[in-house]
Amino acid sequence: MKLPMPMSASQIAGFIGGTVEGDGNALVSGIAVDPFGATREDIALVTDSALLKKLDQCKAKIVIVPQGTKTSDKEQVLITVERPKLAIQRICTALKPQRFLPAKGVHETAVVDPTAEVSEEASVGPYVVIGPNSKIGAGTFVMAHTVIGGKVNIGDNCLIHPGCLIADYVRIGNRVILQQGANLGADGFGYTTEKPANAELLTQGKADQMSDDRNPLLKIPQIGTVIIEDDVEIGAYSTIDRATIGATVIGQGTKVDNLVLIAHNCQFGNDAIVVGHTAVGGSCKIGDRAIMAGGVRLRDHITVGKDAIIEGCAAVVKDVPERDIQVGMPAINAREYLKVQMYSRKLPKMNTELRELKERLKQLESRLLDKQLQEQS
């Protein structure tokens, strides 16, 4: 990837907050996607501990590395940083390309209800639909084919990518980003039956009362809403259901990845992270800064404490304490899980030893019995 112009090590270090070790005037014209495919015209980022062990294989003229890193290449210039990911964030922010956003105003193909209030500083793209009594704040971009229902309130400086679906009564704060196809305010999944359902009877140990007669599922109207607070980002094709009563709330600064399901009445704190393919059951409470890695599953009514981390594909069936790290199915403390895995690997050997012990015990009992019979005779 080419830089907009050749840049020196000192210039790069200046905007990422790094320290140059070597020739600060060294120039590069590109960024290496693969540090081990770099040339002498490139800058490379080598931050992973495994890759740092192979740093001598990187031919880039300038390399961004964690503090304390050394190189055997005397011509190579290092830019050392305290937080490598922050350096990456600053580089990508400085070099991000121009996005093709709609022009200020309302596109001629958009359908905007006469009662809707769209700020003169907002930008509404082609084929957008905005329902009655909805409000769009200043500096907000609504891109093509997005559908916004009635009485929706969207704050200032939001970025709503193409194809988003925002149902009636949803409230969105300021500086919120919705990636392509995000779906806010679909009905939560709520049903009941007039008589006890077979599933209820089965779980209550009343299988003898189950019946093949129809007992139709009756939809519970979802009369609540969704509230997205300031600085939240919702990933592509993620779904956040409206509450049955009240509101499903996503707290300030929380980041939700692609293809995530958050069910009705969930309450998220601030700055939480939810990674792709995670499914959060109804009425869960997620604490500030909690992290749910990819593919995590939470049953209904789970509470996840502040700063807890749930590792990828864990199945959470009971509350997670604050500052705990959990993995596994069902999810348990990570240290306990590793102990279980360690013991599990020893099971074949332990089984063999147990069989040998049982055989030796059997032989010993037989000898003792023979001795007792001899003494009696």
3D architecture notes:
Helix content is 19%, strand content 27%. The protein has three domains: 94 residues, Udp-n-acetylmuramoylalanyl-d-glutamate--2,6- Diaminopimelate Ligase, Chain: A, domain 1 (3-Layer(aba) Sandwich); 229 residues, UDP N-Acetylglucosamine Acyltransferase, domain 1; 41 residues. The strands form six sheets. The protein has a twelve-stranded mixed beta sheet with strand order 7-10-13-16-19-24-27-30-33-36-38-39. Strands 8-11-14-17-20-25-28-31-34-37 form a ten-stranded parallel beta sheet, with no helix packed on it. β38 and β39 form a beta hairpin. By secondary structure, the protein is α/β, with parallel strands linked by helices.
Summary, kept brief:
This protein is α/β, with parallel strands linked by helices and 377 residues long. The protein is built from 5 helices and 39 strands.
Which features does this protein show?
flat; 3 domains; Udp-n-acetylmuramoylalanyl-d-glutamate--2,6- Diaminopimelate Ligase, Chain: A, domain 1; 377 residues; alpha/beta; twelve-stranded mixed sheet
Show the helix and strand layout.
Blueprint: E1 2-8, H1 9-16, E2 19-21, E3 27-31, E4 42-45, H2 49-52, E5 62-66, E6 77-81, H3 84-95, E7 105-106, E8 111-112, E9 117-118, E10 123-124, E11 129-130, E12 135-136, E13 141-142, E14 147-148, E15 153-154, E16 159-160, E17 165-166, E18 171-172, E19 177-178, E20 183-186, E21 191-192, H4 198-203, E22 218-219, E23 225-228, E24 233-234, E25 239-241, E26 247-250, E27 255-256, E28 261-262, E29 267-268, E30 273-274, E31 279-280, E32 285-286, E33 291-292, E34 297-298, E35 303-304, E36 309-310, E37 315-316, E38 325-327, E39 332-333, H5 334-376
Parallel strand pairs: 3-4, 4-5, 5-6, 7-10, 8-11, 9-12, 10-13, 11-14, 12-15, 13-16, 14-17, 15-18, 16-19, 17-20, 18-23, 19-24, 20-25, 23-26, 24-27, 25-28, 27-30, 28-31, 29-32, 30-33, 31-34, 32-35, 33-36, 34-37, 36-38
Antiparallel strand pairs: 1-3, 2-6, 21-22, 38-39
